[in-house]
Amino acid sequence: MDSPSVRFAQFGPSSRRIRLQTLVRLRWLAVAGQTITVLIVGVVLRFPLPFQEAAILIGALAVANLALSAWFPATHRLEPKAALALLAFDLLQMAALLFITGGLANPFAPLICVPVIIAFASQPLRHSLVLIVVALAGTTALALSPYPVPWYEGETLRIQPIMQLGVWCSIASMMMFAAFYAYRVSHEATLLADALAATELVLEREKHLSQLDGLAAAAAHELGTPLATISVVAKEMERELGGDERFREDVQLLRSQSERCRDILRRLTSLSAESEEHMRRLPLSSMIEEVLAPHRQFGIQIALIENGDRATEPVGNRNAAILYGLGNLIENAVDYARSKVTVTVAHDASRVSITIEDDGQGYSPEVLSRIGEPYMTRRPREDQRAGGLGLGLFIAKTLLERSGASIRFGNSEGSTLGARIHVEWPRSVMDVADKNDLAPSTVMPI
């Protein structure tokens, strides 16, 4: 189950918009490569070549590049339709150049796949599918090219139809495989980046409340000086105008209200100091109770088992990442439990561990193999085994691992069914010595 707090973090298709300058630079590379190839074939190797037609096609690509650079800023990002139009232009330009230089017999014919691969790596799927259809049509047209491939004068390099069919199949299969591979890699990278961004947003939101006391103290400090000036002026005015019936009540009201403001600011200033230790320091048992408390009202029994003496339990700084991560795991356990969730807390000199178990049907093998991935597909309605886990679980797992924890997901062993999550921190990593105590103690960033 995804936490409601992360539903606002939707990074849609805008995150896949390609920058115009990127395409422009790739096109200049294409212009340079095509020009060098034509010069080598026609001038160095002296193969007969339609120079005029090739120059027109290469020049058209260069002119289009110059126009785009002049009309749009370098930081402009293309809408999917605009990107599709430019990539289709590049594909047709490449197809036309190959068409007049031998078609599929040209050894550079596989380059027609490049715009398709770029589209699938950077554009929405529906637009990319349009381009691959155009590319396959262009590849078919190349097979029908009447122009011979540039070759030694007096000799004609003939390609048998069966060989042309083989080349067509080779280009088509390479195009589809490379396009699918580029799309999957790009899509997964985008999902991961969006999920990590959502993780950062959730963490910042969790930290926001704990920062309010500091903001209040800063505001009180900044307002203290001008308010003290107002109070001094009010006293002077009361001394000078106190005997005047016209101004006495107003001056007394001004002074009393300034004193009231000073009292309010004084309380705000002392709020952080009075509650700082209470808010920032938290025993392990108190932290667990704070995590469990919001989930005790949903008809599911939550049993807490403590394997360790509270006298030696870790006492550390409040950590919003750990609170949120554990809270999300407890929420999932409550959602999928039939009647009971068991939380086992253990600590010793070397480790701190928390185990969460529910009495549901546990994780299905498919979910267990992919658990922790962002944007997992939700389970079917008829499948009651734990599996509706996605971005919320990914965020919880990421936050806990950043705190130094190791997490193991599995199912309970023996006759007891249900999912089981084991979270463990090395105490040597988590603990910080408390210099204010005479005896060494452990401080866990809770």
TrEMBL record:
Q: Which UniProt keywords apply?
A: ATP-binding, Cell membrane, Kinase, Membrane, Nucleotide-binding, Phosphoprotein, Transferase, Transmembrane, Transmembrane helix
Q: Which reaction does it catalyse?
A: ATP + protein L-histidine = ADP + protein N-phospho-L-histidine
Q: How does it sit in the membrane?
A: Multi-pass membrane protein
GO MF: kinase activity
As recorded in UniProt, its EC number(s) are 2.7.13.3
| TM ranges | 26-48, 54-72, 107-122, 129-149, 161-183
Specify whether Transferase is a keyword of the entry.
Answer: yes
Matching PROSITE patterns:
HIS_KIN (PS50109)
Which residue numbers delimit the Histidine kinase domain? 218-429
> What's the superkingdom here?
Bacteria
The record's subcellular location field reads:
Cell membrane
Q: Which InterPro entries match?
A: 2C_sensor_his_kinase (IPR050980), HATPase_C_sf (IPR036890), HATPase_dom (IPR003594), His_kinase_dom (IPR005467), HisK_dim/P_dom (IPR003661), HisK_dim/P_sf (IPR036097), RegB (IPR047770), Sig_transdc_His_kin-like_C (IPR004358)
Has UniProt tagged this entry with the keyword Transmembrane? yes
> What are the coiled-coil residue ranges?
none
- Please report the name of this protein according to its UniProt entry: histidine kinase
Organism in which the protein naturally occurs: Neorhizobium turbinariae
Where is the organism placed in the taxonomic lineage, from the top? Bacteria, Pseudomonadati, Pseudomonadota, Alphaproteobacteria, Hyphomicrobiales
